[in-house]
Design a protein that fits this description.
This protein is an alpha+beta fold. It contains six helices and four strands, in the order ααβαββαβαα. It has a four-stranded antiparallel beta sheet with strand order 2-3-1-4.
Length: about 190
């Protein structure tokens, strides 16, 4: 049974998402260098579920510090997973900037003068090869189902799955009927 993927309205996409749509897989792989791309998991302080409600601030924080490297991503209420190529930056410093930028915007919006927004530590894993990359891409796209937020991964708007679907990299019923077998530690 055919159906269209759940696409974000264009105005809800940040600059970096819009650019991602036009990338094809060969370009994705050209940007990906073994040992230079990292899977990261970053969690909010006390797992406060604030990211989706303030998703605009989240992408503003990314756009300010990093314009092109969020290749694969999912944002959940209390954490995010992403494949990041930090380029010439240091991964920890980059994530610290994103966390601080979001934190400042969030506190301003909710009129908090102080308070932690993020867990201080984050999980990172250097992508080893193409298989490892694919495993992490699937893990990211299946994550909203894993966390019980949706039954169909295409129903979760806050991931790069629809971009990958548009590029012909997933079938429209991927993850709906069977659970992808994805082993490993992902910093959940
Ligand atoms: Ni997760």
């Amino acid at each position: 049974m055919g159906r269209s993927p759940a696409l974000l309205p264009l105005e809800n996409r940040s600059v970096s998402h819009t650019r991602l749509v036009s990338w094809n897989m060969s370009k994705l792989l050209r940007h990906y260098t073994p040992g230079r791309s990292y899977f990261v998991t970053v969690v909010t302080h006390n797992r406060m579920p604030l990211l989706i409600e303030h998703i605009d601030l989240f992408w503003q924080a990314w756009d300010i510090v990093h314009t092109k490297h969020g290749l694969v991503w999912v944002v959940l209420p209390d954490h995010f997973h992403m494949v990041v190529d930090p380029g010439d930056s240091n991964l920890s410093a980059l994530l610290q900037q994103v966390k601080m930028s979001f934190g400042a915007r969030y506190r301003k919006r909710v009129a908090l003068s102080r308070g932690r927004v993020w867990q201080s530590r984050f999980w990172d894993h250097a992508i080893r090869d193409e298989n490892d990359m694919n495993r992490h891409i699937d893990y990211i796209h299946y994550n909203p189902v894993k966390h019980g937020l949706v039954k169909d991964p295409f129903k979760w708007q806050h991931s790069s799955l629809s971009d990958f679907y548009q590029r012909g990299l997933y079938s429209s019923d991927w993850g709906c009927h069977s659970r992808p077998e994805i082993e490993g530690n992902f910093g959940e």
